[in-house]
Amino acid sequence: MAPTTCLCIGFLLLLGHGSMAELQAERGLGLEPVAPSSSCEFTFDKLQPLEPLPKLKAEAGTVEHFNDTNHQLKCAGVFLIRVVVDNRGLLLPSFTNGGALIFAIKGSGFVGVTFPGCPETPYSHLKEGYVATVPAGDSVWIYNDGGKPLEMLVLFTTSGKANKLWPKNRDFILAGSSENGRKNIFNGFTVDFLSESLGISHFLTTKLQGPTDKRGPIVRVPAGLTPEQQPWLPASNSVCGTKVTASLEDPKPQGTTLLTAYDFPALKLVGLSIERGALKPNASHASPIYNSNAQIVLYVTGGSFRRLQVVDNRGVAVFDGVLRQGQPLVIPQYYVALAQAGKDGAQYVVFKTDAYPVTHYIAGWGSVLRSFPVGVIAAAYNVSTTDALKIKNSGGWGTPEK
Ligand SMILES: *[C@@H]1O[C@H](CO)[C@@H](O)[C@H](O)[C@H]1NC(C)=O
Ligand SMILES: *[C@@H]1O[C@H](CO)[C@@H](O)[C@H](O)[C@H]1NC(C)=O
Ligand SMILES: *[C@@H]1O[C@H](CO)[C@@H](O)[C@H](O)[C@H]1NC(C)=O
Q: Which domain of life is it from (predicted)?
């Protein structure tokens, strides 16, 4: 499969006189077509909500991974964790091999992202409903000054231009140790070599390595922390001044809000976008929908979906069930989904693996069915013209929930 894919892209490049290349450059580190691995071939024949694994505790917070036994996240080219930083907790700096998108579910704090070659990194405020982007290879730290736990979902890309190795999330920690006991990068160097190179004492070098530090990736800062750098200012227009946070507004009931690279250019650097949606109690979406250029990770943050059906190209429901809060569900591109909220409604976020996601509606304003001529519908479904009109105008007259 892989060589064919490569040939096709080469062919398109020739045909398009490099327009595809320009498009890719324009899209920064957007996801390349994932070379289909044979182990992913049947992964999406049955979708499964992922269950959280037991929380890994650090000194001032927790990190939660998800049980991805069927490799659904991996085959979608992403990795997801849920992080809770306690008040006055600091998530120690690290960098990863993929772009990351952070969504703050609850709480507030600030985030610092280091761009290479930039002398001072501005920090940005992060609060409930805010999004932060971290380009691949750039270091990030997060501090909670909000007085209550800061709860975040972090989605990383694992396959794309940013990672040319086997598609697997790798985070490189710069201080302390990871939640699963991995050491920081300084540990791998010998003390002599490192102290000579940095021009610091052996004592300080061993502090960097922190061999006996058992605090994990989130540490307590008892006296609190006030960043000495400047907060982000809108005036700066160099890469160093790239704004890394943005607000993703709370959607109205039966509505959605969307953040793409059109509104928030930093998303281009990570090749991701995000949507929030809300459904009233027992209400369903007005139309089945699909995304044509992005894999999706759906996560319910409040309430539940009492019924969610996802259909593949065989016309088979690869998922038909309930989706509860805290269970991520991977929905592949083109797979068509329809959801209904539970008795307490549903609030959810949708991570998308493209900075410019394209969503298609089957019914309603601007939809597939609405675009077909009545005659085509009558013939296709073997119905009268009157019934064809009913089908054409199904899904409501209004604009799709935006
Ligand atoms: C992950 O889920 C599978 C079944 O879905 C289960 O058999 C397995 O024990 C789970 N793994 C962990 C570590 O909980
Ligand atoms: C939603 O459905 C449940 C069960 O069918 C019902 O008990 C409840 O009253 C409904 N709520 C609303 C707001 O319609
Ligand atoms: C089309 O609909 C008509 C009228 O309902 C019915 O008699 C006919 O058998 C249908 N044709 C097919 C192929 O289903």
A: Eukaryota
Give this prediction's pTM: 0.87
Ligand number nearest CA of 280 is 2
DSSP character at residue 4 = H
| Phi, psi angle pair for 144, to nearest 5° | -100, 110
Give the binding-site residues of ligand 1, using a 6 Å CB cut-off. 53, 67, 69
pLDDT in tens, 144-202: 999 999 999 999 999 876 666 667 888 999 999 887 788 999 999 999 999 999 999 99
Quick one: which of 331, 402, 323 has its CA closest to 361? Answer: 402
If you take atom 11 of ligand 2, which residue's CA is the nearest one? 343
CA of 340 to the centre of ligand 2 (A): 12
Tell me the mean pLDDT in the region 218-247.
76
C-alpha 345 chain-centroid distance: 23
Q: How far out from the chain centre does Cα 287 lie?
A: 24
Alpha-carbon distance 275 to 193, whole Å? 48
Report whether 271 contacts 353 (CB < 8 A): yes
In this structure, the residue with its CA closest to atom 1 of ligand 1 is 67
The H-assigned helical ranges of 87-237 are: 191-198, 202-209
Task: Identify the residue whose C-alpha is closest to ligand 1 atom 3.
Answer: 69
Which atom of ligand 2 has the smallest separation from the CA of 282? 1
